[in-house]
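User: What would this chain look like folded?
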Amino acid sequence: MTVNECASVSTKYFGNGTQKLFQFDWTYMSYSDIVCFILNDEGSWINQDGKFIFANATTVEFLTPPPAPQDSTVKNVWITRRTDLESMLAVFYPGSSIRAQDLNDDFDQLRLAIQEGRCSLQDFKDQLGNDFVEKSRVFDRADQEAG
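Assistant: Here's the prediction, encoded as structure tokens.
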């Protein structure tokens, strides 16, 4: 069974030059954790920071509709999550009380960031292709120690 590590972290769409609203169905902690990109003609993802707003909690609205992709087989609108880890939601100090909700919030923040890391690794692996990755080969500890 193939697992899509990015299904709980990001969504891609085809732009068409008229559609402005794009939905996503995964959780996030803060509006600032949602990032949108558009694929340009050179194949680079361009950050759309400041070029979209939230129509509701699970829908972004681009201020300018994303254009249709140059290659009609490649989705060119990417909505993803990047959980902020610069500061944890709760900070604990010696002698302070520890609330269950604070612990849960911090663990949720870490869990979301781990999902994003798994997605990044999956994307990296997919981009390597079969030339570098043997999908059926699993390296165990003995293989790793032997080099």
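The chain has two helices and seven strands. If you want, I can go into more detail on any region.
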